[in-house]
Amino acid sequence: MAFSSLFCKFAGDMTYEALWKRLTPLYEAGEAKAIARWMLDVRFGLTLADILCNKVEELSEVAQAELESMTARLAEGEPVQYVAGKADFCGRQFRVAPGVLIPRPETAELCQWVIADHTPLPSPCEVLDIGTGSGCIAITLAAELPDSKVTAWDISETALAIAKENAEQLGVNVCFEQRDILKAPTADAHWDLIVSNPPYIEPREREGMERNVLDFEPAIALFAPEDDPIIFYKRIADLAIEALNTNGRLCFELNPLTAESVGNYLMQKGFSQIEMRLDQFGKNRFLKATKI
């Protein structure tokens, strides 16, 4: 009973300033404040005005206890998206959890390019997303491309369960299937568009990565094999050259370190109109190719 009372008193003393300052051993002050504000907004519905009016201190004891638990997780380096259970992507919120890659702004750029450039594709459009994770690409394309029929593959049961939940909550229809692209699935269907953000980080890049990524996000969704860092692109291209309809498109998110190698492989496979696009940081990040 005494411990419970002390905990409630400690949790009840939580303020916005105390919250973000507990994160400064890991983050700069500006980033720590942004993380704290986003969590308070997403999980507790507190606007910036609410925060500035000290509404954090007026949360119920139950909410204060939850906030304390979440802050402790953040202080251990766990990504705020996992702590809050949500991630923003292309104007929608997706449920995320350990075992599923957190959607990145670069992947949103890929979706925006695909959506803006979809007019030459037939309607209805048959779409395949390979390595769907949280379902962010598949669900976004299903919502934004008119009359699209979207299928999404992933090797992970955990990811597929979360992706299905996201599709249901966001009110879109996507057919989710458990498939391993490295086991060379046969072209038992045909698509007009295949999109993928496959694992592409080379093991040697680990040293420059943030600990909150390495310690919490699934390695299976991040890293390519050291002996063949574009193996996923190769297997997807092998499938796509058979499974795409005439004038169908293959769109990738790339690792700038291996972008040229991916482009060369697609040329060898017979793809045409290969185009690379830079991300917001000026790096080769996206690729589009056509099967003639």
Q: Can you give me a brief rundown of this structure?
A:
By secondary structure, the protein is α/β, with parallel strands linked by helices. It contains 13 helices and nine strands.
Describe what this molecule looks like in 3D.
- With 292 residues, this protein is of the alpha/beta class.
- 43% of the residues lie in helices and 20% in strands.
- It contains 13 helices and nine strands.
- The protein has helices at 2-12, 16-21, 29-44, 48-52, 61-75, 80-84, 105-116, 136-144, 157-170, 211-216, 219-222, 231-243, 259-269; strands at residues 86-89, 92-95, 125-130, 148-154, 174-178, 191-196, 244-253, 272-278, 284-291.
- The strands form two sheets. It has a seven-stranded mixed β-sheet with strand order 5-4-3-6-7-9-8, with helices on both faces. The protein has a two-stranded antiparallel ribbon with strand order 1-2.
- It is elongated and about 65 Å long.
- The N and C termini lie far apart (73 Å).
- The relative contact order is 0.10.
- Residues 1-12 have low confidence and may be disordered.
Please give the count of helices: 13
Q: Strand percentage, roughly?
A: 15-25%
Reading the helices and strands in chain order gives HHHHHHEEHEHEHEEHHHEHEE
Structural class: alpha/beta
Radius of gyration: 21 Å
Shape: elongated
Taking strands numbered 1, 2, ... along the chain, how are they ordered across the largest sheet?
5-4-3-6-7-9-8
Cα-to-Cα separation, first versus last residue: 73 Å
Number of strands: 9
Share in helix: 40-55%
Sheet with the most strands, sense and barrel status:
7 strands, mixed
